[in-house]
Write a structure and sequence with these properties.
It is built from 14 helices and 59 strands. It is α+β, with helices and mostly antiparallel strands. The longest helix has 46 residues, at 905-950. It is flat and about 95 Å long. It comes from Centaurea solstitialis (yellow star-thistle).
Length: 951
């Protein structure tokens, strides 16, 4: 009988508020903040401080360990896009919490996502140096733009989505015309990688941030209307002469530079929604907020700057009485002052955080008392929001209780598995392991190990400082701190009788402790304390301690790579376990006391017999150090975790690997298993705590081995012969355009399914033809259709197979079809075009196949009648669809006009226009008052100067 095992699967992941790999962004309502949480996207309700929704990919979609690397929200829509480490992009419906579609096009991690204003186009940049344009509504890639020599870092749409500006680590900006799909302008001048770009909402200015000490600004030239370029920035006569001489393709023109306050490189530059503020986040702890002045204010500031220069000159007029200077001054008086970048952008505030800032995002909604609300994600798993005012910056909220600030160093389950305790560098948290909610947060030292006291009312934490902290679980307070060791407490294990515990420390001591109750002097309450009853001194640092379940032996792993075993009652030496080449980092004993398993920094697990100290088996278990190992209670099954991010399930009797559980994104430090063995919990350097549940699904060892071999084969598919011998430093063609999609396992399987459907349908058509001949000759029996076709006709069966292919994968799927099958597919398009719902699909198939096989189709005479027939039919069908769409659009416009006439919408527009007119009038009055004041100042200054000359 073949032995079967029960499978463990990922069930929950909690403790991560915001991971560092991706940016944060607000949704369109401004109520929710979208933050990356490793492979998920958390939707945080900022006012309530809770995670209202989690957008997580299904476990079937290419493995769970693909981190989110970029997030973007669609303007005025519940849709959001998330880019992942494998280059895939997922479109989510934020209200439903469901994944609408998955787009595959990049070979490297997605670094940036940007939507156009309407949300119909999505541009994505990646580490593979490419930019892909996606049709969000059609869920298909339009084209790929190639030209950058390094990772694309940021993107920005111009002219309502007609142009795209891209920034890269290759120090260049590129302007792409999306209609012609070509690069129209390349901008140099940066001395280091360009990390971020942004355009203000009115598209007057584009700002770039790099590792240089300044921010660079460019003015944007818009589309040509009536022979003149429409640009919203004011131009002088000299500028207009220059612009007439410049190239008509030049979209961005240098405007100036502003010196930054910080010396760190720029990480992000972003305008707020109204465009009156610009935030510059550096790769440090600060964000510089700049005020963006409007045209009237910037001109006024330029005038003041010029007048101040004149005043300085006039003060020196007595010393410099040369005629040339006087002429120059007269010329200056007549000229219009030129607006420079310092007249438009003025440093307003500097936001300083306690830790390094990973990402920033402006809220689309502005409160009455502030200029803007800015959200920050910090690299210590924290989200903060700041209110920016003209005179100050105040922190309004922080989301911090739902996760640790640093690594999770130990996890411990209570005896009934209803509570979970985790420790970190400055706090202890109590969790509900079934829901993942944080119940208590207690400030503490750097906890390296922990355990629940029997009864689960108290817990003991061993710290790096050598203290034992006794925690009251119900009240969430630290009751007492006992100075236990002079070195860090590395291990803490309960004694089998439940009356105490044993600690091991780097001060070479193993100490035995017993529980006691004490009454506090100022209160009548009784609380738990501990007292040291015995000591066992070792020759080296104690890294881990284990006690046999029968209380007979105690084992201590030392820094000298050995494990010493002693009798528990007399503390006499019993055995030494030799064999590891590096120190033993973890150890556990089976419930029956027969086996000891040790995990070491040499990446090996060793299984020992406790009776003679012989090594039963040494297993090369992990690709890096083994950090924790635990037996499942009352079995010889065990779990090990390591720095290679994996959790592995073993059979210690057969010395076989049963399962490999993937999910963590960094080193896994600790593991704890429930008493019934129905779930386990792991803690990691990525600050996540993950629960893995045992399912009722059985599996067999041989099947798992075959599955692992298949996965290795599929992983090697990308590194196939056609890719293996390509030059590694292949430079892209200048401004080249390519197909948006990429070959994946899904596209290959889709091609196979279409070829199989064509073969089955071809056989069925032959059988139908033979049956018709037999019926004519009078020999025909009843025709029995092929059961595989599920009652469909041959044409419908192939259409069903083609329709199953994802829209984005259609081009790559058809690319893998041989010419003979492509011809068969073309012959079915006539029948399919009769269905109005399939006209778009038929046109796409026809277009792709014609582009791919044009030369062969032209050379093959037998295909000409088919192509001529398709031309006539498809043109007619497309015209019908176009007319229907036009009719429906006209009807919707008419309904919209009827609804507008019944509502007060026109009056709203009139009100807004009236408010705009009044604000413009007030600005004019202010400008006149300023000019009058300046005239008076000049008159007084002239009178003084005249008096000075006469004297």
């Amino acid at each position: 009988m073949v032995k079967s095992y029960l499978r463990y699967e990922p069930a929950a992941a909690f403790g991560v508020i915001a991971s560092v790999e991706s940016n944060i962004t607000y949704d369109t309502s401004g109520k929710y903040l979208l933050a990356p949480a490793l492979e998920k996207v958390g939707v945080w309700h900022l006012r309530q401080g809770v995670c209202s929704k989690t957008l997580a990919p299904s476990t079937q979609s290419r493995g769970p360990s693909l981190a989110v690397t970029s997030i973007a929200a669609v303007p005025s829509s519940p849709l959001i896009a998330s880019g992942h480490a494998d280059g895939s992009i997922r479109i989510w419906n934020c209200e439903k919490g469901s994944c609408e579609t998955t787009l595959n096009g990049h070979k490297g991690a997605t670094t940036v996502l940007r939507f156009n204003k309407t949300g119909s186009l999505l541009a994505s940049g990646s580490k593979d140096n490419d930019i892909v344009l996606w049709d969000v509504i059609g869920e298909v890639g339009l084209f790929r733009l190639r030209g950058h020599r390094d990772q694309v870092t940021d993107l920005a749409f111009l002219d309502s989505g007609k142009k795209l500006v891209s920034a890269s680590k290759d120090k260049f900006l590129r302007v792409w015309d999306l209609d012609t799909q070509h690069c129209t302008q390349i901008i140099g001048g940066h001395h280091s990688e360009v990390w971020s770009i942004d355009v203000d909402p009115e598209q007057n200015y584009l700002v770039t941030g790099s590792a240089d000490s300044e921010l660079r600004f460019y003015t944007i030239k818009h589309e040509i209307v009536d022979g003149q370029s429409v640009s919203k920035t004011s131009k002088t006569d000299a500028e207009s002469k220059d612009s007439s001489a410049e190239s008509k393709w030049e979209v961005l023109k240098p405007f100036g530079e502003i010196q930054r306050q910080s010396k760190d490189r720029v990480a992000t530059v972003r305008f707020n929604k109204s465009g009156n503020l610009l935030a510059c986040q550096v790769a440090g702890k600060t964000v510089e907020i700049y005020r963006v002045l409007d045209d009237a204010e910037s001109k006024r500031k330029a005038k003041r700057r010029v007048s101040r220069k004149k005043e300085k000159k006039s003060s020196k007029i007595a010393d410099a009485t040369e005629a040339g200077n006087a002429d120059h001054e007269q010329k200056d008086e007549g000229s219009i002052p030129l607006v420079t970048v310092t007249d438009v952008f003025k440093l307003l505030q500097t936001v300083r955080a306690n830790k390094k800032i990973c990402s920033i995002s402006f809220s689309p909604i502005t409160s009455k008392n502030s200029l803007a609300t800015l959200a920050l994600s910090l690299n210590n798993n924290l989200l903060e929001t700041y209110s920016i005012e003209s005179n100050s910056v105040t922190k309004t909220s922080a989301i911090e209780l739902q996760g640790h600030r640093s690594d999770v160093r130990s996890v411990t389950l209570s005896s009934d598995s209803t509570l979970l305790m985790s420790t970190s560098h400055n706090s202890v948290k109590i969790w509900n392991p079934s829901t993942g909610s944080c119940l208590r947060t207690i400030d503490s030292g750097y906890g390296l190990c922990s355990m629940f006291v029997p009864g689960n009312k108290y817990a003991v934490v061993g710290t790096k400082a050598g203290d034992l902290e006794i925690i009251d679980v119900r009240s969430g307070t630290s009751v007492e701190v006992v100075k236990a060791h002079t070195g860090s407490v590395q291990s803490i294990v309960p004694t089998p009788d439940g009356g105490g515990f044993v600690t091991g420390s780097t001060d070479h001591d193993v100490k035995f402790w017993e529980y006691e109750t004490t009454k506090s002097s100022d209160q009548d309450s009784v609380h738990l304390t501990v007292s040291n009853v015995r000591n066992l001194t070792m020759n080296d640092d104690v890294i881990v301690v284990a006690v046999s379940p029968d209380g007979k032996h105690i084992a201590a792993a030392l820094l000298d790579c050995t494990v010493k075993v002693f009798y528990m009652d007399t503390l006499k030496f019993f055995l030494t376990l030799y064999g590891h080449k590096l120190p033993v980092l973890c150890m556990d004993m089976s419930s029956d006391g027969d086996l000891v398993v040790t995990g070491s920094a040499d990446k090996n697990l060793k299984i020992w017999g406790l009776d003679f100290g012989d090594c039963h088996k040494s297993i090369f278990a992990h690709a890096d150090s083994v950090t924790a190992v635990k037996f499942v209670r009352n079995t010889h099954y065990m779990f090990s975790v390591g720095k290679d991010r994996l959790v592995k399930y073993w059979d210690a009797d057969k010395f076989e690997l049963l399962l490999t559980l993937e999910g963590h994104h960094a080193e896994v430090w600790c593991v704890s298993i429930s008493h019934r063995g129905d779930f386990l919990v792991t803690g990691s350097h990525d600050r996540s705590i993950r629960r893995w549940d045992r399912t009722e699904e059985p599996f067999f060892l041989e099947e798992e081995k075959e599955k692992r071999l298949e996965e290795m084969f599929e992983a090697d598919l990308d590194n196939s012969l056609e890719n293996r011998y390509l030059p590694q430093q292949e430079l892209p063609e200048e401004g080249a355009v390519a197909v948006a999609g990429k070959k994946t396992q899904e596209t290959l399987s889709a091609s196979d399914s279409i070829i199989e459907a064509l073969d089955i349908a071809g056989e069925e058509l032959k059988r139908l033809a033979e049956h018709e001949e037999e019926t004519r000759s009078g020999k025909g029996a009843e025709f029995r259709p092929n059961i595989i076709m599920l009652g469909h006709s041959p044409s419908d069966y192939i259409l069903r197979a083609v329709s199953k292919v994802h829209t984005n994968d259609l081009e790559q799927t058809l690319l893998a079809l041989p010419f003979s099958d492509a011809l068969k597919l073309l012959s079915y398009l006539k029948d399919w075009s009769a269905n109005p719902d399939k006209v778009e699909l038929v046109c796409r198939i026809a277009t792709v196949l014609l582009q791919l096989h044009l030369n062969q189709l032209v050379a093959t005479t037998s295909t000409r009648p088919l192509l001529a027939l398709l031309r006539d039919i498809l043109h007619a069908r497309v015209k019908e669809c176009k007319d229907t769409l036009g009719f429906n659009l006209a009807a919707m416009d008419h309904v919209k006009q009827l609804m507008a006439s019944k509502s007060d919408a026109p009056f709203r527009d009139a009100k807004t226009k009236l408010l705009e007119i009044r604000s413009q009038q007030s600005k004019r009055v202010e400008a006149r008052a300023d000019t009058k004041g300046e005239r008076r100042k000049k008159k007084k200054q002239k009178q003084k100067d005249d008096g000075h000359v006469w004297s």
